Amino acid sequence: MALADALEALRQKWPEIHGDLDPSELRTINQQLAAAVHGARWDPDLLLRTALAHQPDDHEVWVALARTAVRRDQSTARTRPLVAAANLRLQIESDAVEDIPGDADDVERAAEQRVWTVPMAEVGDDALRPHLLVLSRATKRFAPRFQFDADGTVLETVAAVNEILDVEDDPWGAASWWLTPHASLHAIPADEIRIGSPANVLAAAHALDALP
Hints:
Layout: H1 2-17, H2 23-37, H3 44-51, H4 60-66, H5 74-99, H6 104-115, E1 120-123, E2 135-137, E3 140-144, H7 156-164, H8 171-179, H9 189-195, H10 198-209
Antiparallel strand pairs: 1-3, 2-3
Helix pairs in contact: 1-4, 1-5, 2-3, 2-5, 6-8, 7-10, 9-10
C-alpha cells in the first residue's frame, strides 16, 4: 500500500530528516503516529507534510506515496499502514531516548513529554476502574486511549499488565514503561498491545515483576 510504503521510506530516511525539524514539528509527528497506532483519528497527509516540510518536492518518500497501490486483502490493507506507523514511531522514540542527557530531571521531563503525545480520554472519578492508568493534569484526569477497545472497554491484557506495574500507586512509572521503547519487545509496549502481540507485552511485564 502506498501509505505504508511512504511511512517505511520515512523511517529509513529518518536519520537524514529529523535534524531539520523543530520541536513543534516533531511533536506533531509523534502525536499523529500515536493516534494512528492507538486507534484514534489521525491525518496521514498532515504527518507527511510536517515530516517533509524541509525536503524537496521529489523526495523519495513522496515518490513512495505516489506509487500505485497493489490490491491486497482488506485486513492487510488496514493493518499495513498501522504497522509501518508503529515502526516509524519506534525509530523516532528510540533516537529520542538516546539523545536525552543523563541528568535525572531531563530524563523525567522527557518521559512526561512522551506521555502527553499519545491520545487521551478525559475521565471523571465515577468512571475510574481498577487497574486503569489515569494521569492528572491541572484539575483533570486522563486515561491514555491505548488501554481501550473500540467500545471503551479496558483491554484484558492491559488491566493485567497495569496490575503488575502497580498502576494505582505509581501511575507515572507505569506510563513511562508503557510508552518507552522496550529492548526485549523491540517495540513500544503500548503500540505492541494494539497491533502486535499482547501476550508478549504481558510476558515482558512479568519479567519486570520478577526482578529482585
